[in-house]
User: Which sequence fits this backbone?
């Protein structure tokens, strides 16, 4: 196990907001067939510790992060209507997306970024030129949460509050699937078998949805584990976090389920997969990132106590990239070397009045 710097965990107010927004043995399989709503075509889209100082709270902070089609990383901003792009050398560009609150993000098959917007109850598409459009959802207050690119070339997403899974084509055709049992779908990932897998946060299970609408349900053995983020790994399995425990779950396409206890006794937040078959997990409150190999070995990298790793993704450079609620993007090598970049563009030289105005727009406050 690698230990870079072991620190006492702290929880800041901004992390509370981050955890609220985010939304494992033998598996019990329960086939069921949900009802599919008729498709509707939108306009085509182009032990209590002593109190400690809190991390600095800012109005907008990087939230979810995804690898783009252009070898850059793209991220949403917490409590803002912006999406950012950061290159491998740390250059940042910010795109305004017209109101709402972009949450989760993924690269689409059309060289665009697709994202969920729970505040606007819609799915957004951001073109690399900066143009954006939205596909509104039919169900009011559906709570679109996580989004992924399916093997069929469409975008699949969870509707956490409406108990549905949505599918939108790159041309904007929307289909929604009503799930057979309530569960609060959270994270979603495309499996190697042409189906999508998603974590039923409130129902304590992982579900699988086939293109024809058939659902298989896999209950977790420990009650109230609150599965949350999920990823398809290079080993052909689905790996997921258990937000109410310090465990990581693994589900095979055959339905076999295993669980792994993490060294830090705090909730794992997000999970990413690398090409060597390993998965990497952030534990924000422990200031840690853990690697779990395909055979179940765990290595923990402890970061400085000022670093709260949030959402994480494998970058095109072989490193791990993650968001920090304190306004930074972190880059972590597999060996544990950390580099941090500001998640805002470097300010140009301005007059004093112009500088003050710029800080109101993008700076910490």
Assistant:
């Amino acid at each position: 196990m690698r230990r870079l710097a072991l620190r006492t965990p702290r929880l800041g107010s901004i992390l509370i907001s981050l955890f609220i927004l985010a939304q494992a043995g033998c598996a019990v399989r329960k086939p069921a067939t949900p009802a599919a709503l008729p498709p509707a075509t939108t306009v085509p889209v182009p032990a209590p510790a002593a109190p400690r100082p809190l991390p600095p709270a800012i109005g907008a902070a990087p939230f979810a992060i995804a690898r783009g089609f252009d070898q850059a990383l793209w991220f949403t901003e917490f409590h803002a209507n912006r999406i950012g792009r950061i290159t491998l050398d740390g250059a940042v560009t910010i795109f305004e997306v017209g109101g709402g609150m972009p949450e989760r993000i993924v690269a689409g098959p059309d060289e665009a970024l697709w994202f969920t917007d729970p505040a606007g109850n819609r799915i957004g598409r951001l073109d690399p030129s900066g143009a954006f459009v939205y596909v509104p959802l039919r169900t009011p207050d559906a709570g679109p949460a996580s989004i992924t690119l399916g093997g069929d070339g469409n975008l699949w997403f969870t509707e956490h509050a409406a108990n549905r899974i949505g599918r939108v084509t790159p041309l904007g055709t929307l289909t929604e699937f009503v799930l057979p049992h309530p569960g609060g779908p959270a994270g979603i990932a495309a499996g190697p078998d042409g189906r999508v897998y998603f974590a039923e946060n409130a129902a304590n299970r992982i579900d699988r949805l086939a293109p024809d609408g058939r659902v298989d349900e896999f209950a977790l053995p420990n009650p109230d584990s609150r599965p949350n983020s999920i990823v398809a790994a290079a080993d052909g399995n689905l790996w997921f976090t258990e937000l109410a425990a310090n465990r990581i779950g693994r589900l095979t396409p055959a339905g076999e389920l295993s669980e792994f206890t993490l060294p830090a006794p705090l909730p794992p937040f997000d999970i990413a997969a690398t090409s060597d078959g390993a998965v990497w997990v952030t534990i924000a409150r422990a200031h840690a990132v853990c690697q779990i190999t395909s055979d179940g070995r765990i290595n923990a990298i402890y970061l400085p106590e000022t670093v709260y790793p949030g959402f994480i993704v494998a970058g095109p450079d072989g490193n791990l990239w993650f968001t920090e609620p304190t306004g930074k993007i972190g880059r972590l090598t597999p060996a544990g070397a950390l580099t941090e970049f500001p998640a805002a563009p470097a300010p140009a030289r301005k007059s004093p009045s112009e500088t003050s105005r710029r800080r109101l727009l993008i700076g910490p406050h």
